[in-house]
Here is the input.
Amino acid sequence: MTKKIKLLLAEDEPSLGLIVKETLETRNFDVSYADNGNEAIEFYKNEKPDILVLDVMMPKKDGFTVAQEIRENDKTTPIIFLTAKSQTKDVLEGFNSGGNDYLKKPFSMEELIVRINALLNRISLKTNHEQIPLGAYIFNYTKQLLILNDSSIFLTHREAELLFHLYQKKNEVLDRSYILNKLWGNDDFFNARSMDVFISKLRKKLQEDVNVQIVNIRGFGYKLIC
Here is the structure.
C-alpha cells in the first residue's frame, strides 16, 4: 500500500476547510486540520507533515507568521499559501516569509492537488543537488545556501528554486514564460514583476564573483553565465 502523504491544512473558514480536508483524504493524503495559527504551529511540531497548506488570514497568528516561525528551524518542508489577496506586495511577502507557492481564492481542488504534487516532486529532487559549483560559490540547493569561502548566504525558497532552474540551463537562455508558469503559475504582468525582483536579489547575492552573471536576454528570458 502506498504511504500516505502527511499534510497540515490551516484554514479558519470551517466550510472550506472541511471540503479541502475531505477531498485531499480521498487522494491519499493524511490531513491534520487547524483553524488558527497557534494550533497550526502545535500540529506542525507534533505531526511533522510532509507539506503545509496555510491560509494567510487566520486568527491568533496569520499564515505568514506561522511560516516564518517554521522556517527558523525547517528550511525544506514545502508551504503553500491560500489567500484572497493577490497584490504584488502580498505575493512577495508570502515568498519572503518562506512560502513555496501562492494560490488565490477561490481555487479548484484539482489545481491545489497539482501544485501540492509539484512541490513534493521538486523537494524530492533536492537531495541530489547539495554541492553545485557556481564560479567561486557552492550552491547547496537542499539547504538553500550559497557558500563563498567560509561564508554562507541564505536564499529564500523562491530564490533557490529560480537559481536551480537557471543552473539547469546554464549558459543557455531560460525562457521567461516557461519559468513564470513553472514557479509562479502563470506569466501575467504582476508575476513577471515579481520574478524581476527575485532576479535582482540573486544578482546581488552572486556579485562577489564577476564571472557569475544572470543576463537579461530581452524578449526571451535570462541566462546564467558561469
